[in-house]
Design a protein that fits this description.
Chain lengths: 314, 378
């Protein structure tokens, strides 16, 4: 910070520069917001007209590029079920990991640091690599071995399916849940823990009966963020379960499924006539955006509510 | 709240603690499994077990008993279980068909080349019909050419465009939000920018493909509608929130008395931000760029949809490009399971994992150092 001494702040040039550069950074901010606004406006403006009850409640025929008879019901159900199954896995594991990191782990120990490094790394692994991992591990290793174990003559588990897509996504979204839960646990005042311990509660009782209920909104936020992140991901499910077309809705965990995000990809790259497909394409994007943004907004709302409550508690 | 006295629950307590500890190891296990299973599928490639040559060198039937069993199995393209259950005569028959097959093989001097050897993956080679050595990625053709340099260049090209576009914007916004904006304004702008990260990458790709490609083509007047430039800009949308939030975090973690001291000395807010806070947070800004790089090079759907996907060697940013991620996404479904194409896609996946692993570690390290340093100074 020695350089501060050598700067003469009072020159006129410097002052004028200040206004200019402040404006420049403000402009950068506005530009980013404008990008967001353009994307949202474009999608809502072009998609709203096609969006109808019929559109979201129809199972399309094989030729889903036809704007009159098409619908996105199987895609909504496929996306919802893969995300739901994912939650069943990622929430318990993520929350327990966060409990270990905040409540039990000695802060300086090597293993704690390795866990943290692993969580951070998991957050940075490219989504397509998760896809390769899901195929190489879940489908080709776990699934194939399950088939051998249960003596299935044909592949039941050893093929792309909802369960494998969900598990792949669970691994991918683990850091989201862990980080959010950790934040929520840290926000619980230390005094509450001490009071519980002083009354004779054990550590586990304190965590289950005092800390977790207090942190619940934050944990929910983490879950919702994970769901909204996973709902829009396409690359991890490409090889682990998504289907181009299915005549019926998925019934079992071992079925393949159609997916909203993947459908957006299919409609925009495989259409025989993009002009004709555009309205349904926009409507599909709108459905996907409504789903992910609604979830995001709920998460933001819960979080800000929680923060206000925490401030009054401290 | 009905809490019982402590020690009665102790055995359970001990068990629960061990259980919680074990579950928390999942993250480590997963990183390890990702590495292990992505490389596992690529391993036969590295150990030289598979050969992609269109025509294998023929082993005379008479030599059948002289060569090792494992080598024979690979030569006959059998799985270990098939090989074990097959009797000697059937194998001999297979050997004879191999010899016959070799006689009516295509008359191409490249047909005997095992194209997945390292030198064909990394260095240019003069294939028959070409007048000079070339870098070529062409996995679906008679002679499969797997030179990864064109797609590595494609990845780097789009990533650099994304960084050049996104970093100045994100940094500007981070400086503005953390140092210059009023607290009230900050409360609205920050979540809004973070909303950008809520846009799924397939939607960004769609937007680039349908809307942006046309607009940008009108403005710049280039030839191919989808190219590295369009993909790079759309990729920028995806990394702006990443770079922004890390840089903003780093700038905010600079103690306030740095700014106050500068203001007291007569500096303007901008001067304090630019001359005092930014230099102090510089490692964090560096980390933000590194992590943005990692995110951009690993992004799939945007580049798959907007880059045009032609694997040509070109420095021109307005040319179509094919990236590592898009190659995996587009080709894995069609690659024969366990074949050389399949394995090579896992190999470049492992490469990608390694690159992002290293950038993440570097970014994380820098960020932790910076925070430790700034907190120590407080």
């Amino acid at each position: 910070m020695n350089s501060v001494n050598t700067i003469d702040f009072r020159t006129k040039k410097f002052r004028a520069g200040s206004f200019f550069f402040t404006g420049l950074t403000g402009l950068a901010t506005i530009l980013i917001l404008a990008i967001l606004a353009t994307i949202l406006t474009d999608v809502v403006y072009n998609g709203w007209g096609t969006l109808s009850w019929h559109f979201v409640s129809t199972i399309p025929k094989k030729d889903f590029f036809d704007s009159k008879t098409t619908g996105v019901l199987p895609m909504i159900i496929g996306t919802a079920s893969r995300v739901f199954v994912m939650t069943l896995f990622v929430l318990p594991i993520g929350v327990i990991t966060a409990i270990y990191l905040t409540e039990y782990a000695p802060n300086t120990s090597v293993i704690t640091r390795i866990i943290r490094a692993a969580v951070n790394n998991l957050a940075g692994v490219p989504s397509i690599v998760f896809g390769l991992f899901g195929l190489g591990f879940f489908v080709n290793f776990v699934g194939k071995n399950l088939d051998v174990l249960f003596h299935h003559p044909t592949a039941v588990w050893g093929q792309p399916a909802i369960i494998w897509a969900s598990l792949t996504l669970a691994v991918m979204t683990m850091p989201v849940v862990i980080v959010a839960t950790e934040e929520a646990l840290k926000a619980v005042p230390q005094g509450l823990r001490e009071a519980s311990l002083a009354l004779g509660g054990t550590k586990l009782q304190t965590i289950i009966k005092i800390v977790l209920p207090q942190a619940l909104p934050g944990i929910l936020t983490g879950g919702i963020l994970a769901v909204s992140r996973a709902a829009g991901e396409v690359a991890p499910i490409l090889f682990t379960g998504v289907a181009y077309y299915m005549a019926s809705l998925p019934q079992h965990l071992t079925d393949q499924f159609m997916d909203l995000g993947y459908h957006v990809f299919v409609l925009s790259t495989q259409s025989p006539n993009i002009q004709q497909t555009e309205p349904i394409l926009y409507a599909t994007v709108l459905v996907l955006l409504i789903l992910t943004f609604a979830l995001n907004l709920v998460a933001i709302f819960i979080r800000s509510n929680m923060r206000r409550k925490m401030r009054s508690l401290h | 709240m009905g809490i019982r006295r402590g020690h009665r629950a102790h055995p359970g307590e001990w068990l629960a603690e061990k259980f919680i500890f074990l579950v928390s190891l999942t993250a480590i296990l997963m990183v390890f499994l990702i590495f292990a299973f992505v490389t596992r599928e690529a391993l036969p490639l590295i150990t030289g077990e598979v050969s992609s040559a269109a025509v294998q060198p023929v082993i005379p039937v008479a030599d059948m008993d002289k060569i090792p069993a494992e080598k024979l199995r690979i030569y006959l393209e059998l799985t270990p279980s098939q090989f074990a259950t097959m009797d000697h005569d059937t194998k001999k028959l297979l050997m004879e068909t191999k010899v016959e097959g070799a006689q009516d093989a295509p008359d191409n001097k490249d047909a005997k080349i095992n194209t997945i050897e390292w030198r064909y993956l990394l260095f240019p080679y003069q294939w028959s019909g070409y007048d000079k050595p070339v870098y070529i990625w062409q996995p679906v053709s008679e002679i499969k050419k797997y030179n990864i340099i064109p797609i590595v260049i494609g990845s780097i090209k789009t990533t650099l465009i994304a960084l050049f576009f996104a970093v100045p914007l994100a940094l500007g916004a981070a400086i503005y939000v953390s140092q210059l904006a009023s607290p009230k304004l900050k409360e609205y702008i920050k979540p809004a920018i973070e909303m950008l990260s809520g846009i799924p990458s397939v939607v960004a790709g769609f937007f680039a493909l349908i809307f942006m490609a046309t607009v940008l083509q009108k403005v710049f007047g280039y030839e191919s509608r989808l190219n590295a430039f369009v993909a790079g800009i759309a990729l920028g949308f995806a990394i702006i929130p990443v770079v922004f939030s890390i840089a903003e975090d780093a700038l905010t973690s600079v103690p306030r008395n740095f700014t106050q001291a500068a203001l007291a000395l007569g500096a303007s807010r901008w001067q304090a931000a630019w001359q005092v806070v930014l230099p102090a947070a510089l490692p964090g800004v560096f980390a933000a760029i590194v992590l943005g790089f990692g995110r951009a090079i690993g992004e799939t759907m945007i580049v798959l949809m907007a880059s045009g996907n032609a694997s040509i060697m070109s420095g021109n940013i307005f040319d179509s490009a094919r990236t590592i991620t898009a190659t995996i996404a587009a080709e894995l479904a069609e690659a024969v399971f366990g074949g050389d194409h399949y394995r090579i896609l896992f190999l470049i996946g492992a490469l990608l994992f390694l690159v992002t692993f290293l950038t993440n570690m570097a970014g994380e390290l820098v960020m932790n150092r910076l925070k430790g340093k700034l907190e120590g100074k407080k």
